[in-house]
User: Fold these one by one.
Assistant:
Number 1:
Amino acid sequence: MINVMIVDDQALVRNGLAMIVDSQDDLSVVAEADSGDSALILAKRLAVDVVLMDVCMPGTDGIETTSRLIESEPSPRVIIVTTFDIDKYVFGALRAGASGFIVKSARAEDVIAAIRTVHAAMRSSRLVQLGGFSLRWFRIFRDRLSRRRCSTR
């Protein structure tokens, strides 16, 4: 069973994602949070394998929450789920340690596949292709980020 936490400030989005996740025999929503701060508290108390994380939320945003979750032990895998597929969010997600990035316009099948793929790769440091967001683009962003870090040292 893959334990999933959904973090989004919009109840309709959380409920929709929960219905998609819970429709599968091997997936279970173990927590829902409407803020990054709530997610951090819940993650400490529950066994969470994969987090579906919104980027733009009041208070602690999804990027900062992802970074703090990744630093915790045991750290869940995080998939950034957002309406925005622009560079600054992808860079932020990569810097924070997200395992994937998927837009809210993705099909239900893509969300399910993303969760399973990220969970299967938990022991691997490789990036995975999620919901039409090509692995090639993720690698390009990762490489750009790496070059920027190296050039600032």
Number 2:
Amino acid sequence: MRRVASAAVLVAGLAATIWLLPFWATAFVAAVAAAFAGGELAAISGRIGADVPVPFVAAAAAILALAFVVSSSALTAMDPNRDALTTVLCALVIAVGVLTLAMGSPQPATITRAAVMVLAPLYVGLPLGAIASVQATAGPSATTWLIAVIAAS
């Protein structure tokens, strides 16, 4: 019963954010959700022996979600920020390379660590950023429909 009640509160909060607040509030919620999900994936990888810095993965996922929204074509038709996603992706790869080298000498888990630090933020940050981008470009009805289809599948 507790899970049902908490889910109802979360759904109500999400609906209020989508329908009553500006698009950037949805982008903020998407970034927070991406940070939590990225941190959870980093923690899961630690349980299989591929320890990665949870704050790095969480921050990278949140930044990727926001970069997707900033790079949205309707928001940045002639704006230099339209390349924000490309810039963040390149920075992510460079930062992961530096972190992987700084974490010690090569071990069997080194490739797994590098993969988790790149793919976990992509796995959660880009889809959540896409949902926030739909909110920014097509409005609350399209966002609600998208979330409903995802939830139903």
Number 3:
Amino acid sequence: MKIDTFSQMIEDKEYNWIETLPKYQQNTISDLLANNTPEEVAITWLTASTQNTSPFSAKQENTNTYFEMIKKELHKLLCGNKEYEKEREELSGIISSDNNKKMLISSISGIIGSKVGLAATFIAPITVLIIMTITKVSLNAWCNLQVDKNEIV
């Protein structure tokens, strides 16, 4: 699947991506966004919750490491890394279905969660917050920016 397929959906500036989350997460994330950037909210979410969701993971990581791991894996998935070729094909079917944005967030969070050792429901807000950041520029620009900043190798 090409980046353009993701771009069309992810760059929908009119859509409120927070609505893809369960109500209790929507309320918390919305409150935090009132005074913080999406990245600050993502780190706050991880700081407040990681100790409760990662004890079952084989490898314990700190909050910033989890955030960077999630961002790196999302970059690989959304920006065309061959490691995620099969997953992008599966996501293309979701994009063409009804209720696709909720399903897309759920699926992406499951894919990334399995890579970083965290539950999909826990990292769904992080996925949404990063997508909200992408909608402010474009997927292609975000992909390039992460490489330019040497945040993603």
Number 4:
Amino acid sequence: MPRVALAVDIGATKVALALVDPNFVVQQKEEILIGDSSSSVLWDRIEKSASAMVAGLNGNLIGVGIGSAGPIDLVQGSISPVNIAVWREFRVVEKFRELSGNQNVVLHGDAMALACAVAWAAAVMLVRRVARPVERVLAAARSIPRARISPVR
């Protein structure tokens, strides 16, 4: 498997996990319904799915990106999503560092994570739209025979 990031979306009704490659292609995904889980049961279900996803990556995990509803404490790396009553000051960054063995774990609010994803996707589309025509122009330029210039006598 190529190098991937573990993307985590903590929503109101479910937690979505995905392994995403550098080209933003989802390689694998899982969804865990929140339901009426207790704090430990919910984390156990997330941990089981996420651990299975990152097992065997053999150093190919770039990091973990977490988007969550708030309130969020970025300094503590904790979340208290209004719709998940069992999670108050839940130290989600620490939990994913332990689970993944990777210190590169980033937490953002869900709106900020969405805005960042949209910006990256737009940038990738722009680069692809510009790069292809430029490649064609360069290929055409390479096919033009070079003129021989004779020294003036």
